[in-house]
Design a protein that fits this description.
The chain is α/β, with parallel strands linked by helices and 367 residues long. The protein is 40% helix and 17% strand. Helix 7 packs across helix 11 and helix 10 packs across helix 12. The two termini are 35 Å apart.
Length: 367
């Protein structure tokens, strides 16, 4: 338990629904651990119809969650909480994020932070001057920029965009919900992820073409918005959405699971997805595309397998013995539990918030 309690307000995309996003599970794990460490957390979420109809927040262990219905409603009901909070964190992809961010920067008296759960995408949007949830002029005004990506992008944030303090806060996994589960293995290879145009060629190459060439294999894809699923090979099952409560069972039903990375994430590197950590925590052997920084998380060949082709993927599926497959998954699980749980992230966030508060205080005194 931390000796000093923080008063934190978070304005995020969503915590109540995991449909089509990785934000909800990230916030849930982080806030749960912050509460266990004695902090007070208020989470403010804009009510949106697509999340309201697919709400899967089943527990009250994530602090105080309040829904607001418009930007004006947010200001009318929560100005005092924003003004008085010791720390205010605005997340990426918040609806009307430009308005929300500007209001927070003008209203909050405490430490103001931006938590970018989509950093490589955000940087690409800012460089094209088409980012709808943060303006580049806001970045120097935040006391802390929390990034889902590490590596060189942190220097870009500070040197090019003028961030006062850029720190990595990766996604994480909650060991209470993600662990090996003994059950029947239904699939040789599976994949979970919302459909995106930039990822689909890899999905096609690694799963659909593999399935077409190995008719006796069993494959599964889970995630919303995939088009043309009727034209897939008959040995590929499709699941539109799996709530977080079903993720462990999904991963544990596969011999291997596939990690596919968004193009902006590959270009920036050092941007692991929450699905990567979830699968590893379940002890499922992972086949992944390559990006810079992946070797800082897993040892290639020992804890994770790399593939860029149908042939290479099929070779893993058909030739790796079950005993070695199980060992690969177990080694990855130990690696993740040693460094990438939600508890680790809560401790890191404490350090960063204290650092930002100290820097803000020093600037106020000397400035």
């Amino acid at each position: 338990m931390n000796n000093s309690s923080f008063d934190i307000v978070i304005l995020g995309l969503t915590i109540t629904s995991s449909w089509g996003n990785g934000h909800a599970t990230t916030y849930r794990g982080l806030i749960k651990e912050l509460l266990l460490r004695g902090h007070q957390v208020l989470f403010l979420e804009r009510e949106m119809p697509w999340y309201a109809s697919k709400r899967d927040l089943l527990s009250s262990q994530y602090g105080c969650v309040e829904l607001y219905y418009s930007f004006e409603d947010l200001k009318q009901r929560f100005t005092k909480q924003i003004a008085d909070a010791e720390y205010v964190i605005v997340g990426s992809y918040v609806p009307e994020g430009i308005k929300v961010g500007e209001w927070v920067l003008q209203t909050a008296h405490g430490v103001k932070a931006f938590y970018d759960i989509d950093t490589p995408v955000t940087m690409a949007k800012l460089l094209r001057r088409e980012c709808e949830y943060i303006s580049s002029r806001f970045i120097p005004q935040y006391d802390l920029y929390l990034s889902f990506a590490g590596g060189p992008i942190l220097e870009l944030l500070e040197q090019t965009f003028g961030a006062s303090l850029a720190r990595p806060l990766y996604c994480s996994v909650d060991p209470e919900y993600y662990y090996p589960q003994v059950q029947d293995l239904k699939y040789d290879l599976g994949y979970m992820g919302t459909y995106s145009e930039d990822r689909h060629p890899t999905v096609d190459r690694m799963i659909l073409k593999s399935a077409a060439r190995w008719s006796s294999g069993a494959f599964v894809i889970a995630g919303p918005q995939f088009p043309d699923t009727k034209n897939w090979p008959s040995n590929v099952s499709y699941i539109d959405h799996i709530s977080p409560s079903g993720h462990r069972e999904f991963y544990c039903s596969q011999k291997f699971t596939l990690n596919i990375t968004r193009a902006d994430m590959i270009q920036s590197g050092y941007a692991p997805s929450v699905r990567l950590f979830e699968a590893a925590a379940c002890g499922t052997a992972i086949i992944s595309d390559y990006w810079e920084g992946l070797s800082s998380l897993f040892t290639f060949g020992d804890e994770i397998l790399l593939s860029a082709t149908t042939e290479h993927t099929l070779r893993y599926l058909r030739e790796i013995p079950d005993s070695e497959r199980i060992r690969i998954g177990e080694r990855a699980r130990k690696r993740i539990f040693a460094r990438h749980t939600a508890a680790h992230r809560a401790q890191e966030l404490e350090i960063y918030l204290k650092e930002a508060k100290k820097k803000k205080r020093e600037y106020t005194i000397t400035g």
